[in-house]
Amino acid sequence: MKFNICAAKPEDCKDIARMIMELAVYEKMPDQVKISYKELEKDGFGPNPFYQCLVAEVPEEHKSKDGHTKVGYALFFYTYSTWKGRTVYMEDLYVMPEYRGKGMGKALMATVAKVAKEQHCVRLQFSVLDWNKPSLDFYLSKGAEDLTAKEGWHFLRFHGIALDNLAQEAP
Amino acid sequence: MANFILRKAEPKDVSDILRLIKELAKFEEMEDQVILTEKDLLEDGFGDHPFYHCIVAEVPKQEQSVDGHVIIGFAMYYFTYDPWIGKLLYLEDFYVMKEFRGFGIGSEILKKLSQTAVRTRCSSMHFIVAEWNKSSIEFYKRRGASDLSLEEGWRLFKIDKQNLLKMTDEE
Predict the structure, then answer these.
(1) Do A147 and B158 count as a contact with CB atoms less than 8 A apart?
(2) Coil, strand or helix: which one is A168?
(3) What CATH number corresponds to the domain at position B161?
(4) Is residue A170 over pLDDT 50?
(5) Nearest CA to CA, how far is A67 from chain B (Å)?
(6) Are A139 and A148 in contact (CB under 8 A)?
(7) Mean residue pLDDT across chain A
(8) What is the C-alpha to C-alpha distance for residues A58 and A68, in angstroms, rounded to an integer?
(9) Which terminus in chain B has less CB density within 10 A, N or C?
(10) For A127, which of B35, B111, B156 is closest by C-beta distance?
């Protein structure tokens, strides 16, 4: 099946928001999605973009049963490792179920890798849920290493009230 | 003691920042993995497109460290993006020299970072900690942090330069 990978445009945000929700449903956490396409537009296409996004598009004759031609995306941003320097963090990688197995996931990720190379980044990082076997297998086949297993890294966060409390903590 | 100030890092601080990065890496038993140089830190933090932000803790000359340093702590952070909740502050490195611990410097740095997160309308502050680093995990949990690796099963992955290049060649 023919498809195109290109940089997302502001008008793609509705499709990206739709697919973000589909991925959240797959990850069993749909109630955690709090932002809409409006925030995505503001945060990704303003004077100071907080993320970059690629979209996978199919021609009109291959549109989805719901009528969509934007069928996959990769959302990423630049981070920094105090050991190695510039890094790319791939926050989301998603292809709609009916379009899987056609090389789109691979192409999206390879394009992210191309951008990383152009920006002299030394590493691509991302996270995967421990039960997500299809994704784990896909990434391991591309040479990914599980740093949580290998080096014991855990993700922590201060969120919502915990963050507010910390900001107000007396010295 | 406990006479200190927190301020934004300046280009002249890169030598101290690298020293502290290496001290922290040594504590994490990965000192040989630091390949970053002062030149990288200068270009990447103080150029046209900063990849990171940094605050440093400074003591007066009369309270300098045993080795004669006045920059005795630092925190490096940058902004990332969660497609579910928007902007995040990501804490990459956070370190206070051993001889200056227990005086509230770490707490004050964390408070300043959380104030920055709230002021820039970030929903959350994220970071990673090695699971064997019990004292740091306790420090963060006491202040309201949650462990997403334990609670939700997230695992951190990386793909290094060699495999990234392989991916771009394949396309």
Answers:
(1) yes
(2) helix
(3) 3.40.630.30
(4) no
(5) 23
(6) no
(7) 90
(8) 9
(9) N
(10) B156
Using the beta-carbon criterion (under 8 Å), do A144 and B158 form an inter-chain contact? yes
Tell me: pLDDT of A154 over 90. Answer: no
Chain A residue nearest residue B157, CA to CA = A146
**Structural domain boundaries, residue B55:** 5-169
Nearest to B144 among A116, A153, A162 (CB): A162
pTM: 0.86
At residue A49's C-alpha, the angle toward residues A47 and A52, to 5°, is 140
User: Mean pLDDT over residues B31-43, rounded?
Assistant: 91
Non-local (6+) Cβ contacts of B79 within 8 A are A50, B87, B88, B89, B90, B120, B122
- Would the pLDDT of B54 be above 90? yes
Residues of A within 8 A of B158 (CB-CB) are 123-125, 144-145, 147
A42 is written with which tokens? 């503001």
Average pLDDT (A14-43) is: 93
User: Is the Cβ pair B152, A129 closer than 8 Å?
Assistant: yes
Q: Quick one: tokens of A149?
A: 């297993």
Residue A22 has pLDDT above 80, yes or no: yes
Write out the two tokens for B36: 């970053």
Residue B152 sits at the chain A interface (C-beta within 8 Å): yes
Q: How many domains does chain B have?
A: 1
The ipTM assigned to this model is 0.84
User: pLDDT tens digits, residue range A45-65?
Assistant: 988 899 999 999 999 999 999
Interchain proximity A166–B143, CB inside 8 Å: yes
Residue of A4, A83, A122 best to disrupt the B interface, most CBs of B under 10 A: A83
Instruction: Please answer whether residues B49 and A119 qualify as being in contact, where contact means their C-beta atoms are separated by less than 8 angstroms.
Output: no
**Tens of pLDDT, residues B80-104:** 999 999 999 999 998 999 999 999 9
Residue B81 among the catalytic residues: no
